[in-house]
Specification:
36% helix; elongated; two-stranded antiparallel sheet; binds iron/sulfur cluster; TIM Barrel; 2 domains; 12 helices; alpha/beta; single chain; ten-stranded mixed sheet
């Protein structure tokens, strides 16, 4: 919802300031529209329904995977594509993957979003509306549904639009997603890491690392020329020292590119085991020339990191049957 428009409309209608808080409480709890807000006078509900669109995003497509993952493709008022995903886990977690930009100005070679044209930064309202869509249970068809975790790992580099991302994060606890259960993922945009370090919100930092060797990393992620890994890791260390929260390292496993024994050793060499936890990600092919590492290669890479004392997990693959990798749905559309 465009909260600026909501405030202006309530002022025009001569309403007291607490009305905006009432509307927000209902919205955050998954109300389907103004009509549900029974502690607002009926005439006011009708006036708001006519003047304030309930979401700043329009749903274009929605797909539900056999594993429960739901992926939505939206567009903004100016026609920009936005994707968001709900992942439902066996332990009951209901985690959202949110986008911060339409398209992405960075051009990581293995990423579907990176191959799209960059649109623009999303507003805080457009970011929040992705989460509210799933809080309303859209895609599941049974009224409001809980959501409890969020990661900014969808389209875009969140640190390049951090003020809007943080403004959205301030409101996520009202939907049921605490700051401790929110993570912002970056390819290593140092000014953003420093800004996140300095916010009072205990939001987790995740670093998309993908290669410990600077030359290979620059090939996979050209941003590495601007912010080399050694400087990025120093920024991550300063985040850890301030927040006392481990940084999650995301490492996408690309067959024959970054999955060898030697490369596991290189990775172990640059990561301090107290500060970093590694998450190995089986690659979800996106029509790029890259192939996914075999399960055997992933297990061997994991075992080598563990021998070197690192805490390592392998991410569960979700939603493969519905193109749930970052940018895949929008790229196809
Ligand atoms: S991986 Fe992230 S930063 Fe890189 S191109 Fe894709 S969306 Fe952008």
């Amino acid at each position: 919802m465009d909260f600026g428009l909501l405030h202006r409309t309530l002022t025009d209608l001569g309403q007291p300031a607490y009305r905006a808080r009432q509307v927000w409480r209902w919205t955050a709890q998954g109300a389907a529209g103004f009509g549900d807000m029974t502690n607002l006078p009926r005439a006011l509900r009708d006036a708001l329904a006519q003047r304030v669109p309930f979401s700043s995003l329009t749903v274009d497509r929605q797909a539900r995977s056999r594993d429960g993952t739901v992926k939505a493709l939206f567009h903004t008022h100016d026609g920009r594509a936005v994707e968001a995903v709900l992942m439902v886990y066996d332990d009951g977690r209901r985690s959202l993957c949110l986008s911060s930009q339409s398209g992405c100005p960075l051009t990581c070679s293995f990423c579907a979003t990176g191959q799209m044209r960059f649109g623009r930064n999303l507003t805080a309202d457009e970011i929040l509306d992705q989460a509210l869509h799933f809080r309303r249970g859209a895609g599941e068809g049974s009224g409001p549904q809980p959501v409890d975790h969020a990661v900014f790992m969808g389209m875009g580099e969140p640190m390049m639009n951090l003020e809007a991302v943080l403004a959205a994060c301030e409101r996520l606890p009202d939907l049921g997603i605490s700051h401790r259960r929110t993570a912002i993922s970056t390819v290593g945009w140092i000014p953003g890491i420093e800004r996140l370090r300095d916010t009072p919100m205990p939001i987790r930092l995740a670093l998309s690392l993908h290669a410990a060797d600077e030359a290979l990393r620059s090939e996979l992620m050209p941003v590495n020329d601007r912010h080399p890994l050694s400087d990025v890791l120093a920024a991550c260390r300063s985040y850890y020292e301030r927040k006392r929260r481990r940084v999650f390292v995301e490492y996408v496993m690309l067959a024959g590119v970054n999955d060898s024994h030697v490369q596991a050793d290189q990775l172990a060499e640059v990561l301090d085991r107290r500060m970093f936890k590694v998450n190995l990600i089986p690659y979800n092919p996106t029509g790029s020339p890259f192939r996914a590492s075999s399960r055997k290669a992933i297990d061997a890479f994991k075992a080598q990191l563990e021998r070197r004392g690192l805490d390592v997990t392998v991410r569960l693959t979700r939603g493969r049957d519905i193109d749930a990798a970052c940018g895949q749905l929008a790229a196809r559309a």
